[in-house]
Design goal:
CATH class of the largest domain: Mainly Beta
Order of helices and strands: EEEEEHH
Distance between the termini: 121 Å
Structural class: alpha+beta
CATH architecture of the largest domain: Beta Barrel
Number of domains: 2
CATH superfamily of the largest domain: Nucleic acid-binding proteins
Helix content: 10-25%
Strand content: 25-35%
Strand order of the largest sheet: 1-2-3-5-4
CATH topology of the largest domain: OB fold (Dihydrolipoamide Acetyltransferase, E2P)
Radius of gyration: 31 Å
Number of strands: 5
Largest sheet: 5 strands, mixed, barrel
């Protein structure tokens, strides 16, 4: 009987990884909903668990299943059982915006402002630098000679 592995019923929870900065540890937020004792409104409560992840499988935003285990450290009493779904956050964040797209958006904004100005009459505001660049000709103006009167 000592040779047979006994099946242990362990508590299991499903939650989202909210931090993966530590080595071999992730923080998992588990939400549960229950009615308020007096008012019977459904209240969402969130608990954060420090989870042992020795292989570093889980990343920020993953949906994971954790299970109870022996104490591994002062705060870690749970270990990672499985990664259910990969992260929900974008893998690559845009670092720079295409300059041509920005110029096009500024031109369209200036055009829209000009159309509303025509409908409502002249505005008292001065044009912005982007509008002044859009309206300016590509060549510098030629100097005109003054005639004496």
């Amino acid at each position: 009987m000592a040779d047979e592995a006994q099946k242990v019923n362990r508590k299991a929870r499903i939650g989202t990884v909210v931090s993966d900065r530590n080595q071999q540890t992730v923080v998992v937020a588990v939400e549960r909903k229950s009615p308020h004792r007096l008012y019977r409104k459904v209240v969402t409560r969130t608990k954060r668990y420090a989870v042992h992840d020795p292989d570093g499988q889980a990343t920020l935003g993953d949906l994971v299943r954790i299970e109870e285990c022996r104490p591994i450290s002062k705060t870690k009493r749970w270990r990672l059982a499985a990664v259910l779904t990969e992260r929900d956050v974008a893998e690559v964040a845009p670092e720079s915006i295409d300059r041509a797209l920005v110029d096009e958006m500024q031109r369209s904004a200036a055009r829209a402002a000009a159309e509303t100005e025509e409908e409502q009459g002249p505005a008292t505001e001065l044009p912005s630098a982007a509008e002044a660049e859009a309206d300016a000709p590509d060549e510098p103006p030629a100097s005109e000679e003054r005639s004496e009167a």
